[in-house]
Amino acid sequence: MNRTELAQTIDHTLLKPESTPEQVADLIAEAADLGTYSVCVSPSLLPVSAPESVKVATVCGFPSGAVQPEIKAAEAALSARQGADEVDMVINIANAVRDDFDAVEADIRAVRDAIPDTLLKVILETAALSDEQITQCCLAAERAGADYVKTSTGFHPAGGASVHAITLMHEAVGGRLGIKASGGIRDTDTALAMLDAGATRLGCSSSAAVLEGVK
Question: 120 in helix, strand or coil?
Fold first, then answer.
């Protein structure tokens, strides 16, 4: 994988609560310079002005996921109206922990129905789940019509992405849904390990460092 190809797997991310519109403008300029696929910003910072080469992603129910499905649906719909090309929603993690995968599916479906024409990624917070819960959440996301499953918010104390979690996700839905690794990807070796395990997209706030190791 060359530098251009790796860059096109990256959602260049800025989700710190204190982020300003000026910092988002800098993020977009850097994304265009690095050649990343998209930027990912907080919904309160939409709309943004980005070149056609850079997609705009945002988050929903972030970072806890402990929001009623109707609220997530409304938030996602507003983001889509404000120009988001992609939405990364957080599941209600408590539903997954208690093995209520019907509730996980219903949560995702509410957002899917609200943004039928917007790419939807589903953040599972895999470090907080068992292997079986990861698998079942992936299958619930597929049933609900999601486009991607994603490892992490990057904000949970349990940790971020892991090769093990990506492997489980790939075994569950690889080839049918995209798989996004996010949380703790700060260098080239880690990024390539995630892609080798089955990830098809990377969430990175350290995109320049990730791209340093390839030509």
Answer: strand
* Phi and psi at residue 76, to the nearest 5°: -65, -40
Active site members: 88, 150, 180
CATH number at residue 128: 3.20.20.70
Quote the tokens at residue 14: 């800025």
Distance CA 178, CA 147 (A): 6
Q: Which pair of tokens denotes residue 73?
A: 């649906």
Closest CA to 121 of 135, 111, 133: 111
Structural domain count, the chain: 1
Average of per-residue pLDDT across 25-31: 98
Position 199 pLDDT exceeds 90? yes
**What is the residue range of 186's domain?**
3-211
**pLDDT tens-digit readout, 125-171:** 999 999 999 999 999 999 999 999 999 999 999 999 999 999 999 99
